[in-house]
Amino acid sequence: MKLAASICMVLAAGAATAQQVGPGVEEVVVTATKRGATLLEDTPLSVQSLGGNSLEEAGSLDFDDYMRQIPSLAIGDNGPGDKRIVMRGVSATGDGTVGLYFDEVVMTGESLGDDGGKQPDIKLFDMDRIEVLRGPQGTTFGSSSLSGTIRWLPRTPDYTKFAADVGARILTLQESDDTGYQYDAMVNIPLGDQVALRVAGLRAVIPGYIDSRFGDDIDQEDTTAVRAMLGWRITDNLELSLLAMKQDMHLDGRTSFSTEDLNLPRSPTLNGGPLPSKYYTSDHARSSRDDEIEMYSAKLVFSQGWGTITGASSLFERYSGYIRDASAAAEVLSAGRLSADSTGISLIGGRDGWPKAWIRSSELRFSSDWDSPVNILVGAYNQNEDRRGGSYWATVDPNTGRPTANPTVFLSRTTFTQLDQVALFGEVTWEVTDRLVATAGLRWFDFDIIQDASRLVDFQSVPGPGRGPTFKFGESGTTGRLNVGYDLTDDVLAYVQIAEGFRAGGPNDQTAASIANVQIPAGFGSDSIINYELGLKTSLLDRRLTLNGAIYQIDWEDIQVSQFANSASGLRFTYRGNGGKAKVEGVELEMTARPSESLQFGFGLAYTDSKLEEDLPIPTQGLKGDPLTYVPELTGSVNARYSWSMFQDWEGFVGGDWSYVDESANRLRPTDRYYRKLEAYDILNLRVGLQGGDGWTTVLSVDNALDSDEIISYPFDFQTAAAINGNIPDRLGRVWPRSISLSLRKSF
Q1: Which of the residues 68, 318, 399, 423 could staple to 659 if both were Cys, CB 3.0 to 4.6 A apart?
Q2: What is the Cα 23 distance to its own chain's centre?
Q3: Is residue 545 a contact partner of residue 593, using CB atoms and an 8 Å limit?
Q4: Using H for helix, E for strand and C for coil, what is the string for 517-541?
């Protein structure tokens, strides 16, 4: 941490000697504090904003396209719609530790699973910006904003003019025989002086590169999305905003592969050995993924000279249907009574529209704008969530690999979970002097979770006992925040912050445990963190250079961790419990420079040291000093863009970015049978383009230009307590292969 302090001192010294030389880096406005719009450099938080125009020019479509440009952000990536988002080294089992919002729509819910929340991939089109708030946001954003919050903010209706935009892109992918394409469009229509409608849509088909016995490039992604927003200025002081969005994504195969075939004794055709192609999955049934999202929101804003009252309600609905080949599991867990290449060929996942979740949230808040050194933010929040899940394991047609009308059902169970949460929050901001501002905040929360589960069919087609007992869990508590910002000069802001975050507890799935014939605890409690942070924001050389830095320490208690119970059949059954403590220490640096109107460049750098501070309750699963999972120690990125005038009103530009992600691991203990190292990797993206000519833009891009192919994920289908008789090779996920794309866009 001495190095971090020295860096911040250097930034401050540089600011003190800065000269005013002219206009520079564009000022960025954020709304992260819920107190209205503020300039990013004047906001005493570690917050980053990614502009919609830059994202569009870079061809960014989903999370994987821009996450490496954000210091202290990492992911455990099992493919589209299945990501574990990690911020500031806070990584653990269970629900996501980063709060996700699309405008006012809450997308973060409980999962009661070991998946990090399976965070959704929201496709980018007609976006204004993405705001990333690092550090716990428990006071203003509540549960699951344990280590930070990400907000996707679309462009809003324009009351003043008609506008339209249409774009198209074609792309090729290394290792793929297919060509992908994308097209999107937007229209903004004023309906008089007080009403405006904005509608945008997208279709994207991204080529796959993984082969199987059912065809080549089976992991092709096909996404359709549409969004409509209506703005109504009822009066000069009252505005209503409505949003509706639907996004459907489908993959007809896995995004992981194996390097050798299965070798199982009860399957005469599975004797190991090489596979037909470099990237091949040996599935005997057709794995697939459907991710269907709908979101709706209404926001009413009443503004007066004394403050702003905002009321917002939203519904987030998501069907996350992932079915995967379970043929090998059938043979292993049945002790050979089923064969992976014949009687055990099967799929496991959901059915009849589940798993599915509905998150309904409402918030009413008041932000004062008094002519006083003291101002306040107060609000009330309510969230109701329903989640339908379970497991359905059944045979398929061995020739097509698809479900049949009358399968043999190996297992069927359902779960119904309901969460009700209420919260009250408030912040007081005191302008002690013209340069010194202090903010103190507190949030009180209370939640209850109820879960009902049914065993319809037990493993190997044994009739189940039906509905089990109802499990309940509830908890209440408070989180707080203290922030002090001081303007060292007109161009240098220093701040110190202490902030708390929490993540809800819940019941363990006793029905699934009873099928596996293991005993597990009834539930697990909330975990919480305290973040201590010192930050510095500088604008130098008349905003031609901005330098921001932060050093922090996070103390994490009662960590929600994966624990295991071994069944008589050899299955290692995973459930959630609370472990000990962890500590995260880190440094974040960001720089943006614009030495001329034509040249802009920048970098981001993060160092993260995250380790257990004490042994877990089951020492074989984690010991003091073990690094936390999916947390690279070092991440960094650089970016640059240069433009020049050409003929008439046309401009040429060239740019690119390079990013580096250090190695990490998927388990705490190296002695764990499923411990794997995730390799360090770097990615170079390049682009060149033209823009002008009355709204035309064309860009040629090469992403992952050097075709880095390191292994960054190991998605395990199931885990066993001991070595099996035979071999089930690892499934591997690599860095996305090199792609070349050409886009054309016209704005009206």
Answers
A1: 68
A2: 35
A3: yes
A4: CCCCCCEECCEEEEEEEEEEEEEEC
DSSP-derived 3-state class of residue 63: helix
Of the candidates 306, 299, 247, 381, the one whose C-alpha atom is nearest the C-alpha of residue 31 is: 299
User: Which residues form the domain of 37?
Assistant: 2-747
SS3 392: strand
Other CB atoms within a 10 A radius of the CB of residue 115 amount to 18
Name the amino acid, one letter, at 151: R
Q: What does the pLDDT look like over 165-192, one tens digit per residue?
A: 999 999 999 999 999 999 999 999 999 9
Beta strands in 580-619 (DSSP E): 581-593, 599-612
Q: Is the pLDDT of residue 113 over 70?
A: no
Q: Who has greater pLDDT, 515 or 60? A: 60
Contacts of range 74-78, beta carbons closer than 8 Å, 24 or more positions apart: 74/630, 74/631, 74/632, 74/635, 74/661, 74/664, 75/630, 76/116, 76/629, 76/630, 76/666, 76/713, 77/712, 77/713, 77/733, 78/255, 78/256, 78/713, 78/715, 78/733
515 has a pLDDT exceeding 90: no
Closest by Cα among 745, 741, 592 to 180: 741
Q: Report the distance separating Cα 748 and Cα 694, nearest Å.
A: 8
- Number of Cβ atoms within 10 Å of the Cβ of 595: 13
Interatomic CA distance for residues 247 and 154, integer angstroms = 15
Which residues, other chains included, contact 668 with Cβ-Cβ below 8 Å and sequence gap of 6+? Answer: 612, 616, 621, 622, 623, 626, 627, 628, 629
- Burial group, residue 302, by CB count within 10 angstroms (0-12, 13-18, 19+): middle
Angle ∠(617,622,626) on CA atoms, nearest 5:
140
Number of neighbouring beta carbons within 10 Å of residue 640: 15
The single-letter DSSP state of residue 168 is E
Of 235, 138, 54, 100, the closest CA to residue 529 belongs to: 138
Q: Are the beta carbons of 483 and 44 closer than 8 angstroms?
A: yes
pTM recorded for the entire structure: 0.91
- Can you point out the beta strands (E) in 305-334? 307-325
- Supply the CATH number for residue 610's domain: 2.40.170.20
- Tell me the pairing of strands 105-106 and 73-77: unpaired
For residues 396 and 285, is the Cβ–Cβ distance under 8 A? yes
Q: Quick one: pLDDT at residue 95? A: 78
Q: Tokens at residue 239, please?
A: 């505005």
Retrieve residue 479's tokens.
Answer: 């989180």
**Residue 725, pLDDT score:** 82
**Counted domains in the chain:** 1
Burial of 718 (0-12, 13-18, 19+ CB in 10 A): middle
Q: Token pair of 98, please?
A: 């980063």
Burial label, 567 (beta-carbon count in 10 A; 0-12, 13-18, 19+): middle
Burial-class residue 462 by CB neighbours within 10 Å (0-12, 13-18, 19+): exposed
Cβ neighbours of 344 (radius 10 Å): 27
In 3-state terms, what secondary structure has residue 318?
A: strand
Give dist(CA 191, CA 198) in Å, integer. 11
Coil, helix or strand at residue 234: coil
Three-class DSSP category at 5: helix
- Alpha-carbon span 254 to 735, nearest angstrom: 15
**Which pair of structure tokens corresponds to residue 49?**
């904003």
Residues in the chain: 748
Cβ count within 10 A of residue 656: 18
Q: Quick: pLDDT tens for 33-77.
A: 788 778 888 888 899 989 999 999 888 988 888 888 999 998 888
